[in-house]
Request: fold
Amino acid sequence: MTNNNTYNFLLSDLKNLKGVGTKTSNLLKRKKINSIFDLLWKLPRSYTDRSISSKIKDLKIGNTQTLNIIPFKYNFPRVRNLPNRVFCKDETGHIDCIFFNSYEGYIRKILPLNKEITISGKISFYKNKYQITNPQYISEDASFVKNKHNKYSLTEGISENVYNRIISQILSKLPKLYEWHNQVVLEKFNHISWNKAILELHKPENIGKYQADFYKRLAYDEILSSYLVHSDIRKKIKKIKKEKKKFNFDHQKKILSKIGFKLTNDQKKTLGEINNDLISNQKMFRLLQGDVGSGKTIVALLSAYNVVKSGFQVVFMAPTEILAQQHYKLAHKIFDNIKIDILSSKSEYKNKKRITKEILENKIDILFGTHSVFQNKIIFKNLGLIIIDEQHKFGVNQRKKLSDKGGRNCDVLLMSATPIPRTLTMTIYGDMDLSIIKEKPKYRKEVKTYSKLESKIEDVIKFVKKEINKENQIFWVCPLIEESKKIDHSSAIKKFEYLNKIFPNKVALLHGKTDSEEKESILNKFLKNEFKILVSTTVIEVGIDFPNANVIVIENANKFGLSQLHQLRGRVGRGLKEASCILMFKSSLTENAKKRLKILKDTTDGFKVSEEDMKIRGYGDILGFKQSGIKIFRLADPVLNSDLFELAEKEIRFMEKNKVDTTKYKILMKLYDQADILNDIV
Reply:
């Protein structure tokens, strides 16, 4: 196979490598290493320097050392389970090579008698004698052994030696690909080529050099490839011509006047962006991202109303039935003269049948519901807008399929209450146009945030009693469902039992193991004020407005990330009353914990919180859904390489504005992004 200037070698099957059979290939594929290119990112974690030879008299027990020895005698016991032994020497002393599970013929071959051999391995001392058990390297060619050897986080069944041989083989066959970057970009990485960068990456002495030119070049390749894919999707969607929506903005003014609600500047700006998309002849594919309590729903509903007044239907999907019901009730309250309905898995058969018929006959203007609204048998007569709430788990492929499902004239609006740091926005949602609402409505009360030692729980109980006497409700959040012997976290079940003794018949329990039907029932009862305290795990993070809940207590707050704490805090303060968030700790706070607490106290801006969270914990953990839609970078890191993300965004915007031909980036996109969606693009 030729590979001087083609990427086909890199994308080929692992079995094309010498020494990689079916067994090794399957072991690697279990670790999602499916191609030769994937193996290049099996990076060494450290290395062992075997370049310096030692004499037997100078050996150090416990160290990995290289030495030149002469085997002079074999000992192959006929008793099972006893090791084979080779007696060896140099001019300064004796050492035994011990072999378990090795055949006599193999040992005779690699360690022939009376011939100098270079070996390397970990030194031990047994019965007044040096020995090496199962030497890692043995060769007549000293230049092979006397080298720096990479150490890997090993895949079960594959030795370090095998990894090194496979990687060395790939590096020796690396193609010299043509350069896809322009000179301005290359200058930032000292004009280092992709090929050279890969070779440098695998040199043992370069482990961990994140700011080196070779490392930054490869990180930038990853970032740009992701941005290019998103850019191509955007361009493809923009080419879809649709029927323009035509509506009278007076309808919108009447609705706002009716509910006595003044939009924030961010809401006005966002609504304007959405309306401009709706009345254009280009298909809308937009994400409405807003912090908790910023008022995304009213913007989405006003957009839906405008679409209905244009003669089209709207479908509004929520992740849970209770949230769908909440949206439905709000729409019912503010809309006149339009037909709305709700559909879920719990809807009666007769009702489902009626809705299915009326949707097809264009007798329903807005249909609310859960995923049930996207069943194949639900066919819209004239669908003009799809709205999906809290669907941050949609990846690129799912979003594109969603866009296709609606048809040519159907616009798409997704909503997310999870603030994303600036450096990740293009990475996650780069295929979509983005609207952001940061500003909170003036009537929203700021949630006061406090810290409290768990030993002072009686103080918290007194505070909770006062709030209950005022007819307020409380969330009490615990990290675990049941008591763990290994981890000293609070248990939701144990806390429920504790609080139920103090507040009998006023406490409910909700956690991840609660089935969906029971969960809906508990939340509905809490919403109706049938319970005063809801003890819960983090399942309450996203979703429903509980206007009467104005206190949230979070136990072991130091075990949560900043973004998670902010999301939890956003569950209260949704009504007109003052709200409180009490963060409880088991012991005195560390300096890091104090820093995190200060961030929460200083700001209620979820975007600022997420930025700080990313700096503390890294980008892989802050979102909680990295497996869905977020490109998992091999090298690039939004914290360490924020400048590269900015550079890539600038470059993409330049390409789009100047309609730059991206054909030369085909290799880059093929190598770094194997998403199925590329089949439609390149």
Summary: The mean pLDDT is 83. The chain has 25 helices and 21 strands. The first helix runs from residue 8 to 11.
